[in-house]
Amino acid sequence: MTRRLHWPDERLIRAAQDGDVASLTTVVMDSQPHVRKFALSLCASPQDAEDAAQEALIILYRKIGTLRATGALGSWMFRIVRNECLRQVRSLFARSEETAAEPEGCVEQSAEEAVLRRMDVERIAAAVGALPRDQRQVLVMRDVQGLPGHAVARSLGLSNAAMKSRLHRARAALRHSLAPTDQATGQAADRAADRAASRSAGGEVRP
């Protein structure tokens, strides 16, 4: 019979906040399985999840004193992991945007264009982060990281047909979440969704 894991109790957390090193170490160790579970459910890949979990545990170790309610450790760590996974997606999109924005003539962006580009990245990253995990995984791996379709399918244990179907649903969901509220923002949202969907195809939208 497997032992059910629990979050550290409030007494242990208070001792850690008061500077007791042994208690702090125990809090971090006991939180680790839960943090990893959060990360696996939120991040795009197991490697991203491991990176996010490690970063979240470091934040827990360094900043446990900022936790106001000792009974809210779980929700606090969930937010930290979620933000770290979103940061990873934003970083991936930003790097992809920088690569795509490097014309042969190296035309300098205006300040307005740079701001709009950052806004696009933030919107897309937030929309991707809100996708179900199975859709988020295939979208990030295929359209952001640019992995070949067969490699994505193999990594996720899917057939090529199943991978393409999941990718199609993810792209459709992304377009829907970026749906405009007016015509002007609509054109920007369409461009943002098109860039996300065609990233790995060099501008050609294909699964």
Short descriptors:
207 residues, mainly alpha, 9 helices, 72% helix, 0% strand, disordered C terminus
Question: Could you characterize the architecture of this molecule?
Answer:
- This protein is mainly α and 207 residues long.
- It has nine helices and no strands.
- It has helices at residues 10-17, 21-42, 46-63, 73-100, 111-129, 133-144, 149-156, 160-177, 183-198.
- Helix 6 (133-144) crosses helix 8 and helix 7 (149-156) crosses helix 8 (160-177).
- It starts with 9 loop residues before the first helix and ends in a 9-residue tail after the last helix.
- Residues 181-186 and 202-207 have low confidence and may be disordered.
In short:
The protein is an all-alpha fold. The protein has helices at 10-17, 21-42, 46-63, 73-100, 111-129, 133-144, 149-156, 160-177, 183-198.
Number of helices: 9
Residue runs with pLDDT of under 50 for 5 or more positions = 181-186, 202-207
**Number of E-state strands:** 0
Could you tell me the strand content as a percent range? under 5%
Determine the mean pLDDT: 77
Q: Specify the structural class.
A: mainly alpha
Order of helices and strands: HHHHHHHHH
Main sheet, how many strands, which sense, barrel? none
Distance between the termini: 44 Å
Gross morphology: elongated
Radius of gyration from the alpha-carbon trace, in angstroms: 20 Å
Query: What level of helicity do the residues show?
Result: over 70%
